[in-house]
Structure prediction request, 88 residues.
Amino acid sequence: MNLSKVNEKQLTSSPSSFDLFKQSYVYFNEYYLTNAVVDNGRIEPNYENLISKKEVYFRTKSEVIKDINDEDIVAFPDLTEEYLRDKN
Prediction:
């Protein structure tokens, strides 16, 4: 099974959650996935259900769109539709 999280990041001058995640990943070389639970109105991670991950691939849009057959091209539906329209 292959799961993917796609986030097209807009450049800003202030650090975002993505920037903080990337810095933490570079430092710790791992991250955890889990579900969240609502406890007394607060969202809390479910620490009993952590999944440790050691790999993440950071790619730019320009890297992905070089190859229309790239599996991550689906993150850019406007480009995919344009390509398919031009082929027909």
Observations:
- The chain has two domains: 11-56, 59-88.
- Residues 11-56 form one domain.
